[in-house]
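User: What would this chain look like folded?
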Amino acid sequence: MRLVADETVVTQNIKLIKEICIMSSCLLIVNPSSGKERAKQYVPRMKQQLERLFDEVEVKETQKAYDATAFAKQADEEGKTAVFCMGGDGTLNETINGLAQAHRPINFGFVPFGTANDLARALKIPLDPGKAIDLLPRARTVAIDLGKINDRYFINIMAAGALPKACEEVSTEEKTMFGVLAYFIKGIQAHVNQRVYTFKIETDVGDFTQESSLLAAVLTNSIGSFETAMPGAKVNDGKIHLVVFKDLNMLDTVKIASQIIIGNIDYSKFASVHDIQKARISLIGDEKLSTTVDGEKGPDFPLEIEVLPSFLKVYVPKAEDDE
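Assistant: Here's the prediction, encoded as structure tokens.
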């Protein structure tokens, strides 16, 4: 009996030693062109804070499209504990697409440097990079939903129609000069060229067909930097908020824009809203249409959409009630 007891103690001690010896490591992905090329200026400050939390910190800069996705996948293969990124919503989307394919849970953190910064707004992460970085040592994690559209993942919004296509065409120079207003200007201009499509929509709560010039699938309350654009939506409510707009005239477009700006949007007057978990959306006829996903070009129709509830743990500022 004594021998068995000793063997048990030894086994427990070996397990404890292994746990102690496991080193935590993280990858920091930086888009050097983000924030009017300010992101790279904050790298030393960010690295210093991360070194307080992790034993090893590796930094990689993106050079071309989808680098962030490749880096995140590699972090999974290398056994990294967490992945952080510094960039706009596009960089976040690329990083998320890498993490969503990981073989094990990897925590995610980011410092916002974009124009809209919708996920940061939804999670109450400071838009000032310095403040966001300084809060990291006292951060906590929350689980957020991810959306999946065909073979892509998204964190905020998928949209289709004249408006998202126009917003996709907003140049870096226009973003720098006008900020969020650049999207509003493009949206008004797009109305002149809007087309009405017939969508066949099959969801887990019912099927229907509707003509519309604009369709959107939303995960958070913030759209285009407006934090009350989708009232009631939460980052982990397990739902996709599918908004199918009616045929809008110019006056309707202006009304919607103004209501979103003042935070008092009533979608019932302009659209049908469906809280879903899965959907298949196709076009009736020979129309061709692509999507915009988190502000970047997305897949073409037909679409398979689903929500992945509480799929990713994200570092956020510690809440006051956690004190």
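Residues 2-21 form the longest helix (20 residues). If you want, I can go into more detail on any region.
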